[in-house]
Design a protein that fits this description.
The chain has 157 residues and is of the alpha+beta class. The protein has helices at 2-14, 21-31, 39-47, 55-67, 109-122, 138-143, and strands at 71-75, 81-85, 93-97, 103-106, 132-135. The strands form 2 sheets. It has a 3-stranded mixed β-sheet, with no helix packed on it. Strand 1 (71-75) and strand 2 form a beta hairpin. Helix 2 packs across helix 3, helix 2 (21-31) packs across helix 4 and helix 3 packs across helix 4. The radius of gyration is 19 Å and the shape is flat.
């Protein structure tokens, strides 16, 4: 966490912004998260212990973290932004349950290699990418009367 906070302070300095106590507390709380978090969720974590921090300050700090390359903002179809740690050494993709909203991260090197082959063949230079799969998680599919081995709408198992 110390390295990320130092990166954030350097970014603020380069941008001509102050490294305020509120920004540091919000950044610390964000870096302590282990899952995707909304601005409101982060506010609930910080605001109760530090009543001088408002929701607008949390939104602005998350935007600064994103601009500094320390956070990724994701929209998973539910109409609100969720944030996760940015990590250049740990690319992952997401599976999102359309019923309960559960987000599962996964890595698959074969998918990544296939994407690279396609990109090279088509002559693109990729700057970034994301893969999001939407469907029902195991719990919701069982609750809907579909077992985990049921053929999906896409025709695969």
């Amino acid at each position: 966490m110390r390295d990320k906070l130092l990166q954030f302070r350097r970014y603020l300095n380069r941008a001509g912004l102050k490294a305020t106590r509120q920004r540091e507390l919000i950044a610390r709380a964000f870096f302590a998260t282990t899952a995707h978090v909304s601005a409101e969720g982060l506010y609930r974590r910080v605001g109760g212990r530090h009543p001088r921090i408002g929701l607008v300050t949390v939104y602005r700090t998350l935007k600064l973290l994103k601009n500094a390359g320390l956070a990724h903002e994701r929209q998973f179809g539910e109409g609100r932004a969720l944030f996760e740690h940015a990590s250049s050494e740990h690319h992952h993709d997401h599976i999102i349950c359309t019923e309960c909203g559960k987000i599962t991260e996964f890595e698959n090197y074969e998918i990544e290699a296939l994407q690279e082959q396609i990109v090279r063949r088509l002559g693109f230079l990729i700057q970034y990418h994301k893969l999001e799969l939407y469907g029902l998680c195991r719990d919701c599919s069982v609750g809907a009367g579909r077992g985990p081995g049921t053929v999906s709408a896409m025709g695969s198992r």
